[in-house]
Amino acid sequence: MVFVLPSQNVVDDIESDNGGVLSQNTIRCTILERDDWNDEGNDTSALSFPHGMVIDDACSKVWLAESVQATRKNLQLNHKRPTVDRRFYCDSTRKVISDPLESIVRHALELASNYSVKSANDKENAFVVYCNKYLRFLEYKTVGGELLPHRDGIKTCEDTCIKSTHTLLLFLSDCEIGGETLIMDDTLGVTWDNINWSKEKNLVLDVYENHDENLNENNYHSDSNIRKNFNKRRIRYITDENRLDPIDAAGTKIFRLEDASIRSIDSIGDYEEGKEKVVRMPPPRHVNAGIQPSEGRILLFPHHWPHAGAMCQSVPKIVLRAELTISRA
Fold this sequence. Notes:
The chain is of the alpha+beta class. The protein has helices spanning 8-16, 61-73, 98-112, 117-120, 223-233, 257-260; strands spanning 28-33, 52-56, 85-90, 127-131, 134-140, 147-150, 166-171, 181-184, 234-235, 251-256, 267-272, 275-280, 287-291, 298-302, 307-309, 317-328. The chain contains six helices and 16 strands. Strands 1, 2, 3, 4, 5, 7, 10, 14 and 16 form a nine-stranded mixed sheet that branches.
C-alpha cells in the first residue's frame, strides 16, 4: 500500500482557515460503557479512557468538505478488497486531518469526563490525544457489503514509538438503512446454535420504529417488545425530524452496552395448551449496539472491543479510519 502525502497547497489552505474545525453547534456525546473484562479474561481498566464514544455535531462542515472530503477525492482508489475500496493517506504535516481530529476528540473527552463515573476519578489530569498520521478511507459502494467481526490491532507510531489505544471512525456519508458499526458482545461465549460472536456473518441489525410507551416490559413474548429491544441497540443520528426527547438535543449521555444487549432472552420458554413453546430472538445475537453512519459523526472505541460492519443497504458508505492514543497528562 502507498500512502499519499498532502500537497503544500492543501496545507496552506488549512493554515489560512480561521473558521476552525469545531462546529458552532452544541456537541453531543454518547459514552459507550462496558465491563472491563473481555472474553479472554484480560482486565482492560488500565486504559486512561476505557470506553467508546459517539461524537455528534462536532466537525465543522467547512473542514469536512474542504479538507477531509477534498483530500479523499484526490487519492487513488485501491480495489484489492472484494467488498470495500480503500484510499491511503499520510498526513505528514499533521495539519490537514490528524491535528484537527486530536482537537475535536480532546474537546469531546473533556465534556464526557464530567459524566463518566469511571473517568471522573482522574479528572485532575487533562486528556492527551495523539492521532497516527497514516489514515485510510474506506468506501462501500455495493449493497450487501459488510465487515466481518474482528478486533483491531495496536499500531506503533514510527515517529514517536507511541502505541495506539483506540480506533476512530469518522463517517463521511449518511446511511439511513444498514451499514452500522456493530459493537459485538464477547461475554456470552457459544449460544444455543453454537455460533459465537466471531463466527457471525451477513449481519443485519433489524430496526423497528416503535415508540409505544405502554408496552409491558415483562412480556418478552410480545412482538412489539422484541422490536423495542432491537430499537435499544441502534444509536441513531438524531435530527430535528426524528428527535423524540429534548435530552437528545444537547449534552452527554451514558449508553451501557450490557443494558442494551438482548442476550439474556435469546430463547424464552413458554407453555401453550400444555406444550412447551420456545421463542427465539432473531439474529444477530451477539451485538450490543449498532452505530448509524452519518456524515460528520465520530465513533471511537478501544482496539480490543470486538466489532463488525453490518451489511450496507444505503450506499455509498464512506468512512475515514484512524488510530488514536488516549492518555492522561
